[in-house]
Amino acid sequence: MICFFLEGIPSIILCNLSNNTKARLYHCLLARNRLKSRIIYFNWRIHLQFSCIIDSFYAKVLTLNAEFHFRIILISAFQIIFWLFWYLAYLPAYYYWGTNMSWKVGSFTIPTNWFDACNALFCIISGPLTAMLWHKLESRPQGDISLFKKLGIALGFLGCGYIFYAIVDIARGSGKPSCLLLVIFLVFLTLGEMFFSPLGSAFIAEYSPSRLMAIMMSVWSLGIFFAAKLYAYVYQFAFGGHFKFTHACIGVAIAAFLCTVILFAMDKPLRSLVEKKEDQAEA
Question: Engineered SS bond to 179: which of 1, 94, 101, 134, CB 3.0-4.6 Å?
Answer without folding.
Answer: 101
